[in-house]
Amino acid sequence: MQCLLPSTFNYLQDQILKPLIELSVFFKKFSSSKLNIENLILIEHQIPLIICQLEKIFPPRFFDSLEHLPMLLPYNTIVGGVFSISGCILLRDI
């Protein structure tokens, strides 16, 4: 899949390509093995701008309630800490 995507990106306009690349970089930074608070705060401030750019490009039907999940991920990681159980999401009792 990673080999196919760069070839398709050649056909996209820059205004469409830029937000997609920024979203990809966001998830790459967020899923790195070492996270620090400064980077999390930085990507927490960048993701609303990326989502806004995507909303300008794609029709409203493209988005669902999960479109705003990336906006919550950095904050929840800063507040709750990083944890992983073999790729599963741990739900904590409140």
Automatic annotation (TrEMBL):
<dbReference type="InterPro" id="IPR025452">
    <property type="entry name" value="DUF4218"/>
</dbReference>
<keyword id="KW-0812">Transmembrane</keyword>
<protein>
    <recommendedName>
        <fullName>DUF4218 domain-containing protein</fullName>
    </recommendedName>
</protein>
<dbReference type="Pfam" id="PF13960">
    <property type="entry name" value="DUF4218"/>
</dbReference>
<keyword id="KW-0472">Membrane</keyword>
<feature type="transmembrane region" description="Helical">
    <location>
        <begin position="72"/>
        <end position="91"/>
    </location>
</feature>
<feature type="domain" description="DUF4218">
    <location>
        <begin position="31"/>
        <end position="81"/>
    </location>
</feature>
<keyword id="KW-1133">Transmembrane helix</keyword>
